[in-house]
Design goal:
27% of the residues lie in helices and 31% in strands. The chain is of the alpha/beta class and 321 residues long. Strands 1, 2, 3, 4, 5, 6, 7, 8, 9, 10, 11, 12, 13 and 14 form a 14-stranded mixed β-sheet that branches.
Amino acid sequence: MTAPPNVLVIGAGIIGLTTAVTLAEAGHHVLVRTAEPPQNTTSAVAGALWGPWMVEPRDRVLPWASQTLDVLRDLAAEPDTGVRLATVREVARADHPSPDWVHLLTDRKPCAPHELPAGYSFGHSYRAPLVDMPAHLDYLLTRLRAAGVELESGRIASLADAAEQARLVVNCAGMGARSLTGDDQLRPVQGHHLVVSNPGLTDVLEADTGSSPDLIAIYPHGDHVVLGGTAYEDAWDRTSDAAVAEAIFTRCLHLEPRLRGAEFLAHSVGLRPTRPSIRIEPERLPGGSTVIHNYGHGGAGVSVAWGCAATVAFLAAASNR
């Protein structure tokens, strides 16, 4: 008979799969339990450009983001990972302070006037990892299978139920962590993305929209382009909306006229699991089991996933001492 797992990871988005890979390759016998297949998670519909925007606490986020940046740069050199290093232009109509993570990008520089779209006066360019999320999730699944990890479908009713399956539980449930933990600080930020055919774009283009929840972002991935998007707080609905889709396309078309005539391929909606700060900490459960929480990454999951997974692996090792 197969030995029972010593670690149960809840969730199969970017945080759950990355954490499971890290733990399994460190020698743990891991089982992943997921309410949704990886390709149905919020992670699957992400843009997904490295950049740890609007996530706390900064003293922990920056080291996590730096470690993740290193891993993604390495993966960009490997085939079939879904990761590539893309040229990025961030543009704005008015100048504003640079984010605190710019020191991690040694090639970031101001855009020349001819690099700016019409109506934009400021901008910076740099190279950063861009992740084709469906392809990347498949890559992580391949690594998990190679490490002997199984995925089981099914919703976990409670952490107590999870503890019956393994001595160590890792809670990477995204928005599902709200019901598992009773954490009412965890709230959804709804994101709509369009997927259209690629008319020949290679560079990422993002425009600053200030405090507006209506975003403008263009992420080319080979034969398709992901267009973003929205950031609607406390919106739980994952149903596509034709009016929202049309507005996203119109905003992106104004920024990049070459999108005119692009074929509509998909409209996806995800819920970014957002809280005042990422929660990574152990908690002792009744009966002696331990849960390590790893949730609340908002829209920065891709940007901090490997760093957070390393912290979980450290906590897992400490729990066995």
